[in-house]
From TrEMBL:
The entry's keywords: Pyridoxal phosphate
One protein family per Pfam: Ala_racemase_N
Keyword check for Transferase: no
Name of the protein in question: Pyridoxal phosphate homeostasis protein
Stated role: Pyridoxal 5'-phosphate (PLP)-binding protein, which is involved in PLP homeostasis.
Keyword flag Acyltransferase: no
Entry-annotated residues carrying N6-(pyridoxal phosphate)lysine: 48
Domain spans labelled Alanine racemase N-terminal: 40-244
């Protein structure tokens, strides 16, 4: 690598370190305010639209959990970073025809929202011989029996879908995930939305005690998520900066 290239990488690592430190302070502060231990909340850095080189720098800075939301970007990035000790989370809407690819690299899929996807992921997990952690994506903007604008199953469908995951070979029920909705009764009310997700999680754990993950909160609302009991926050731009425009 040229001198200029090395300087650029050094500058980028400094930027990422600063972003991580700011987010760490926010999470620690939110935990303190909520009376929670800092180690109760895991940071997942969402690296979508950023290159594999950033993933490598994040790993050097101690990041161990990263997320992507598009398989066409995630698959080659995960392959380029296969030598790193990372846990990969898939957090975007997932088509059934992408399940086979995602099962090759993802450790967790946060966006399971329909029976057909459970079947596809189970088949894919069996082919790879890997166990895949699955979270039910809860759509708090969905009518009963429906799905949300950004994917997810309505709250009344969580228990049934969780049961399908729990019974599917190669899959492990991890918990629940949501994105603060843009419409419906919880629009603009992230604290209330995440509190509702916590209620759903508590109910789900009564039947499946191992389903402990509560994935909620992003760069703009992570404090509300931590206050409501999130175990995992998914943060991208607050660590990596303003996202490049997609081509």
């Amino acid at each position: 690598m040229s001198v200029a290239g090395l300087e650029e990488m050094t500058d980028r690592k400094t930027e990422l370190a600063a972003g991580l430190e700011r987010v760490e302070q926010r999470i620690a502060g939110a935990c303190a305010a909520a009376g929670r231990d800092r180690d109760e909340v895991a940071l997942i850095v969402v690296t979508k639209t950023y290159p594999a080189s950033d993933v490598r720098l994040l790993a050097e800075l101690g990041v161990r959990q990263v997320a992507e939301n598009r398989d066409q970007e995630a698959a080659p990035k995960a392959a380029a970073c296969a030598d790193l000790d990372l846990t990969w989370h898939f957090v975007g809407q997932l088509q059934t025809n992408k399940a086979r690819s995602v099962a090759d690299y993802a450790d967790f899929v946060h966006s399971v929202d329909r029976a057909r996807l459970v079947t596809s992921l189970s088949s894919a997990a069996g082919r790879t011989g890997r166990e895949l952690g699955c979270l039910v994506q809860v759509a708090l903007d969905a009518e009963a029996g429906g799905r949300g604008d950004r994917g997810g199953v309505a709250p009344d469908g969580v228990e049934e879908l969780a049961g399908l995951i729990d019974a599917a070979p190669g899959l492990r029920l991890g918990g629940v995930m949501t994105v603060a909705p843009l419409s419906g009764e919880y629009a603009g009310r992230p604290a209330a939305a995440f509190a509702r997700l916590r209620e759903i999680s508590t109910s789900l754990r009564a039947a499946g005690p191992a389903a402990t993950m509560v994935s909620a909160g992003m760069s703009g609302d992570l404090e509300h998520a931590v206050a409501a009991g999130a175990t995992h926050v998914r943060v991208g731009s607050a660590v990596l900066g303003v996202r490049p425009a997609l081509g």
